[in-house]
Amino acid sequence: MNDAFGREITYLRLSVTDRCNLRCRYCMPEGGVEKRQHQEIASFEELEEMVQACVACGIRKVRVTGGEPLVRLGVVDFCRRIRRISGVEELCITTNGLLLAKYARDLKAAGVDRLNISLDTLCSGKYDSITRGGSLQQALDGLQAARDAGFRHTKLNTVLIGGFNDDEIPSLVELTRDEAISLRFIELMPIGECAGWDKSHFLPSQTVLERVPDLKPVGSDGVSFIYQIPGYQGTVGLISPISQHFCPSCNRIRITADGKLKPCLHSPSEIPLRGLHGAALQAAVAAAIRGKPMRHQLEGGNASGSLRNMNAIGG
Ligand code: SAM
Ligand code: SF4
Predict the structure, then answer these.
(1) What is the DSSP secondary structure assignment for residue 311, as one 8-state letter?
(2) What residues line ligand 1, using a CB cutoff of 6 Å?
(3) What confidence tens digit (pLDDT) does each residue in 236-285 have?
(4) Where do the structural domains in the chain lie, given as residue ranges?
(5) Which of 204, 237, 254, 310 could form a disulfide linkage to 27, CB 3.0–4.6 angstroms apart?
(6) What is the secondary structure of 196-236 as a DSSP string?
């Protein structure tokens, strides 16, 4: 269905947990999240019912995210059930990749169509530092496991952080030389943990084009502008939520692991869905879509209006 500004809402980002096996400095507090009572998190049955209501309102693509979605027990079976919902045309997962060596084959068998893997650096010392203790090799093994399991068109997401990984832009782009991979640079957004970071860490995605002038435009998918070095197999996407916000073409809503529908990533508005069923649940989803804000207000150094850290939303 369309929102009040005529945007057709077809994409649901569904967070299944706010917990994670990493502590990325821009996303998670160092001590992790307060362990929630079991009953504070929506059960897979509840989440499935919410997805069904969203599909009845026009959602066709679902992305399972987190926290780290693969740390929640039973996630593979949950994916199988979501993929079987009539009307779900595409099921994707966004993951840090650490558990893919264990789960990639099962996720493929469960019907997951595509993976996005987050990778901010190719230097193991820097990976350890930004994730506070993660292993780059484990993430790369996860990427390999995804290939071996038959996942194609995997996207690699790199958050561009001034003074941290801008020196690696050329070497990251080189990953697209021999493999049909989509590398995407995402502008760091001032939300949660990094909301108060120094401005020097927030780089416009155009920085990528300045550092790699051989990149040529080849298209756009509504969220990213896509570039390629002629002759390379893969592509490089620039996702610019701040410097060139894509609100006019935003087609997404989000549901958090505690069952709140967020019509906009950067708005404080959250609609509780738990406890609603059938027509009442569908009506709440429809009302939330109609009430989706026109745009966020991140330009000019404004912090996000969201009340949550990214790990509690899902990106
Ligand atoms: N744990 C999974 C992962 O890291 O891919 C899924 C959840 S994570 C919150 C989803 C995406 O949000 C990741 O690609 C992460 O890098 C990105 N992210 C987190 N905080 C961000 C921020 N402040 N600005 C831009 N992207 C951010
Ligand atoms: Fe975990 Fe993903 Fe956040 Fe890193 S970005 S702390 S991997 S949820």
Answers:
(1) G
(2) 20, 26-27, 65-66, 68, 94-96, 118, 157, 159, 186, 188-189, 191, 194, 310-311, 314-315
(3) 999 998 887 778 889 999 999 999 999 998 888 899 999 999 999 999 99
(4) 11-312
(5) 310
(6) TS-GGG---THHHHHH-TT-EEEEE-SSEEEEE-TT-SSEE
Contact 245, 298 (CB under 8 A): yes
Give the Cα separation of 159 and 173 in Å (integer): 13
Taking the CA of residue 21 as reference, the ligand 2 atom at the shortest distance is 1
CA atoms within 13 A on the CB side of 315: 25
Superfamily (CATH) of domain 11-312: Aldolase class I (3.20.20.70)
17 within 8 A of 67, measured Cβ to Cβ: yes
Predicted model pTM: 0.95
Contact 66 CB / ligand 2 (< 6 Å): yes
Distance 186 CA to ligand 1 centre (A): 9
Reduce the DSSP state of residue 71 to 3 states and report it: helix
Task: In whole angstroms, give the CA distance from residue 99 to residue 4.
Answer: 40
Average model confidence (pLDDT) across the chain: 94
Return the bridge partners of 115, or none.
Answer: 93
Q: Which ligand is closest in space to the CA of residue 94?
A: 1
Q: At 46, list the tokens.
A: 């509840």
Distance CA 261, CA 53 (A): 12
Distance between Cα 82 and ligand 1 center (Å) = 22
Question: 32: left (phi > 0), else alpha (psi -120 to 50), else beta?
Answer: left
